[in-house]
Write a sequence for this structure.
């Protein structure tokens, strides 16, 4: 697992991004797949999840992973959630790409394999969040929507929030079509800052796009930490859907209040 320097000084939280190593899955899921929705054997996923929970010191039920759909739906995990039936919990987490909570000893997270994982922490209000930002979510400004939700629900101030941009595909290799330039332009992005043109091809910088989104929302530049790790390039260490295909493993980026 990797961690972020900006979060490490805050002992009231635990945080991480897992790697491919340390689990029991095989094939394209080898070995530490932490997503139950991409075709891995359920028993292998369950064992990987248990290994992670043992390391975090929590019950399996306190590790919350949504069913992501590249949208901008945000859900809050509160005491009411834990009173729901298993079926109601599944429905509540379906089609969700970001989670927020203020509950201690509840680990919220999202899973990725090239998309951008974002973790948020407000040390003043003791609020945490996790978001999944592929190109669609980034273009729809999910980062800004999470910050807005943290403010509306918990009166968080953007200038207090710390954010990490985790391992994901880099602009060096993320080749995209011309239509994405138009999509981001229509969404108000400065496309000259996030698209690169090389050898007749177009490359999208999701890291820069999310940095711009976060700054637009009021996050201080010094409170944004970029891992700078490309999942496609370092595919032996991290899962890459562009390398392995959709039916492959996913890393988990998680955050938890411990005090």
């Amino acid at each position: 697992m990797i961690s972020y320097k900006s979060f490490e000084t805050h002992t009231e939280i635990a945080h991480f991004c897992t790697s491919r190593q340390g689990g029991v899955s095989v094939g394209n899921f080898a070995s530490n797949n932490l997503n139950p929705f991409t075709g891995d054997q359920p028993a292998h996923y369950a064992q990987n999840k248990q290994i992670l929970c043992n390391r975090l010191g929590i019950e399996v039920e306190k590790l919350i992973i949504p069913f992501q759909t590249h949208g901008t739906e945000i859900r809050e995990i509160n005491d009411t959630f834990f009173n729901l039936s298993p079926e109601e919990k599944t429905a509540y987490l379906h089609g969700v790409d970001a989670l927020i909570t203020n509950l201690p000893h509840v680990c919220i997270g999202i899973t990725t394999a090239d998309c951008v994982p974002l973790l948020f922490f407000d040390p003043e209000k003791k609020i945490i969040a996790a978001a999944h930002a592929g190109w669609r979510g980034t273009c729809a400004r999910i980062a800004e929507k999470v910050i807005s939700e943290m403010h509306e629900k918990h009166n968080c101030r953007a200038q207090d929030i710390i954010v990490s941009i985790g391992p994901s595909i880099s602009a060096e290799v993320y080749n995209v079509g011309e239509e994405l330039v138009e999509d981001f332009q229509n969404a108000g992005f400065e496309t000259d800052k996030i698209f690169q043109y090389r050898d007749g091809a177009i490359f999208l910088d999701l890291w820069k796009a999310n940095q711009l989104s976060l700054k637009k929302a009021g996050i201080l530049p010094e409170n944004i930490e970029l891992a700078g790790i490309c999942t496609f390039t370092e595919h032996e260490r991290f899962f890459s859907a562009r390398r392995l295909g959709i039916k492959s493993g996913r890393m988990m980026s998680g955050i938890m209040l411990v005090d």
